[in-house]
Design goal:
The complex is a heterodimer of chains A (185) and B (262). Helix content of chain A is 70%, strand content 0%. With 185 residues, chain A is an all-alpha fold. Chain A folds into 2 domains: 112 residues, RNA polymerase sigma factor, region 2, helix turn helix motif (Rna Polymerase Sigma Factor, Chain: A, Orthogonal Bundle); 62 residues, Winged helix-like DNA-binding domain superfamily/Winged helix DNA-binding domain (Arc Repressor Mutant, subunit A), CATH 1.10.10. In chain A, helix 3 packs antiparallel against helix 4, helix 3 packs across helix 5 and helix 7 packs across helix 9. Chain B folds into 2 domains: 43 residues, no CATH class; 174 residues, no CATH class. Helix content of chain B is 44%, strand content 21%. Chain B has 7 helices and 8 strands. An 8-stranded antiparallel β-sheet of chain B has the order 5-4-7-8-1-2-3-6. In chain B, strand 4 and strand 5 form a beta hairpin. In chain B, helix 1 crosses helix 3 and helix 6 runs antiparallel to helix 7. The two termini of chain B are 26 Å apart. Classes of the chains: A mainly alpha (185), B alpha+beta (262).
């Protein structure tokens, strides 16, 4: 019963948030803030900036709670995507990733949930799986994926930064993502 | 003849933000007309998001949460939106279509009436010239009415409801938009814009910068606008922002109305 009830926890908290219950946001913060803050800190390498993005992200969640349909999307995935976009925009002074994105309200159905990361134990297990998968990649493939994910670089930018031919970078990123796709499903 | 679907690796790279240049442009063009690949992109985004889990979880300082909870006190309560407003039920669509037509027609009539009243107060010497202007105005209006009829009659036109934003002026609007034609009709109600400011309507594409769809001047009775954009331009969302008078090339001010196109 517990295993079945756990995935609904986000849904219940979102419903409470829609009723104006601040404790629901508090609970979601406790659940996801460490995961998000780890990612934001890695992207921004600036504690204060990461804290500000984290706060903005949860404020946005509060404002848009009514637009989220937990049955059709994964809240932690949405938080990770929007959080990363905001962090990279801030890091690079680029607005194109986030222009109005926070208002799209379309996180229902946007992030099909194939992985259960609501549950802390499952999330920790998945984190280990992903870290191990990245570790197993050849160093240059891992570097290319990490530059793209954590620094928001395009293939051309990675090529310029690493002094590698663009075609080689493309092959590395594609091969790496192919491997990760097989692991992550 | 069917268009081949996007390569899954391209979707992964796009979700990662690594795709650029012609490859990115070609994929975005494909995505604009391919719901199946758009759905696959959702899965790719999910996968890509998970890469962030490779960064070790770090608990933020307790003060961060304390500050957040303090900020909540200044926030309005969340508003349930999606089921009832952002996606109108089929039974509401016909009503909205007529509402858009009525609203737009009313706007034109009001503008024409205001113009005609103004005309009566003028001297005979100016009348000939001004009648020409009125005729030109009516001709333009007729063209707009034709455009509106095209959009509202097309079965592939979509209706988007734009809702007011927290802390913004009260208001609501509907946009009926046809991506194939690149045309749409906006009709809405907004509190008057502050002096020296204009409301500006934006189409937000799936990627790239928002595209201006014209000014929405709530200070006049004509609260409807016909949008003429590039044919084939798909919308992810529509938004109205408050800008310096006359509008801006890109949004700079606060969002006052927003609606997601689904």
């Amino acid at each position: 019963m517990t295993a079945l009830a756990q995935p609904k926890a986000d849904a219940a908290l979102i419903a409470k948030m829609m009723a104006g219950d601040e404790s629901a946001l508090s609970a979601l913060y406790d659940r996801y803030a460490p995961m998000l803050f780890g990612m934001l800190s890695r992207v921004l390498n600036d504690r204060q900036a990461a804290e500000e993005v984290l706060q903005d992200l949860f404020l946005q969640l509060w404002r848009n709670a009514g637009q989220f349909d937990p049955g059709r999307g994964s809240l932690p995935a949405w938080l990770m995507v929007i959080g990363r976009n905001r962090a990279i925009s801030r890091l690079r002074g680029r607005r194109d990733r986030e222009v109005l994105e926070e208002n799209e309200g379309d996180f229902a159905g946007t992030f099909a949930s194939s992985q259960n990361i609501e549950d802390e134990a499952a999330r920790a297990q998945l984190a280990r799986t992903i870290s191990a998968a990245l570790e197993k990649l050849p160093a240059e493939q891992r570097q290319a994926v990490e530059l793209a994910y954590f620094e928001g670089m395009t293939q051309s930018e990675i090529a310029a930064k690493t002094g590698t031919p663009l075609g080689t970078v493309k092959t590395r990123v594609r091969t790496a993502m192919q491997t990760l796709r097989q692991i992550l499903g | 003849m069917t268009t081949p679907h996007a390569n899954p690796e391209d979707l992964d790279l796009y979700a990662l933000g690594a795709l650029d240049g012609e490859e990115k442009q070609a994929l975005e063009t494909h995505l604009a007309g391919c719901p199946a690949c758009t759905q696959q992109l959702a899965a790719a985004r999910q996968r890509t998001a998970l890469l962030g889990l490779s960064a070790p979880a770090v608990a933020p300082r307790p003060q961060v949460k304390a500050d957040l909870m303090a900020k909540l006190k200044a926030e309005p309560r969340p508003v349930p939106a999606r089921s009832s407003a952002a996606q109108p039920a089929q039974s509401q669509i016909k009503k909205i279509r007529w509402g858009l037509r009525f609203s737009f027609g009313f706007g034109l009539a009001a503008a024409a009436l205001a113009f005609a009243t103004f005309e009566l107060a003028k001297s005979d010497l100016e009348r000939g010239k001004q009648i020409e202007q009125l005729q030109a105005q009516l001709s333009q209006d007729e063209s707009s009415l034709q455009a509106m009829n095209q959009v509202t009659a097309a079965p592939d036109s979509a209706i988007v409801t734009l809702l007011q934003q927290p802390g913004g002026p009260p208001g609501q609007a509907h946009v009926m938009y046809n991506a194939r034609m690149g045309m749409g009709v906006y009709a809405g109600q907004l509190a008057p814009a502050p002096v020296g400011r204009s409301y500006q309507l934006w189409l937000v594409p799936a990627s790239g910068a928002p595209v201006s769809a014209g000014l929405v001047n709530a200070n006049q009775q004509a609260t409807s606008v016909i949008m003429h954009l590039a044919p084939g331009l798909a919308a992810k969302a529509f938004a109205v922002t408050l800008e310096p008078e006359g509008g801006m090339p890109q949004p700079t001010g606060p969002k006052v109305l927003v609606g997601a196109a689904s």
